[in-house]
Amino acid sequence: PPAHSHSDWIGPPDRHSNLRPVIFYVPPEESALERRLREARQEAQASNQRFWARHNRAFRQEKEEFIYSRLKAKGLEMRDESGHKATLNAEEMADFYKDFLSKNFKKHLQYNRDWYKHNFRITFLMGQVALVRALRWLRWRKKNVEQ
């Protein structure tokens, strides 16, 4: 982002995780509490990035293996006569999706727990930052009214 920017920047979706990366704005006089909030947000983003990149990689690989095995069982090749990639029907793919979700249920459960932990922490820190800013504004206003 340009040096004069005063906001977070959001990039295009990552090709592995499909998540949009964020470059967080760091104010020149960032307080320790504001830094903790930004770092918590960065940590949550990195954790999500790692999980979804691994998850999507496993999904694509297992999906290809499933399609290959089903086509092979039918005596078909991965490409048809015209060179197009062979596909399975929706019912066959539903078997794969159901199996994949069942196999990864515990991973998703742990991801959801971690996601909630990250977000509760971020929300708590955001509340603290908002309170400190409100108190700072009230003190500033009181000081200016007295003058």
UniProtKB/TrEMBL annotation:
Gene: Apopt1
Transmembrane annotation, as ranges: none
A matching Pfam family: COA8
Protein name in the entry: APOP1 protein
GO cellular component entries: mitochondrial inner membrane
Main location: mitochondrion
Compartments (UniProt record): Mitochondrion inner membrane
Superkingdom in the source lineage: Eukaryota
The species this protein was found in: Illadopsis cleaveri (blackcap illadopsis)
GO biological process: intrinsic apoptotic signaling pathway
Membrane topology type: Peripheral membrane protein
Biological classification of the source: Eukaryota, Metazoa, Chordata, Craniata, Vertebrata
Keyword set, alphabetical order: Membrane, Mitochondrion, Mitochondrion inner membrane, Transit peptide
UniProt record similarity statement: Belongs to the COA8 family.
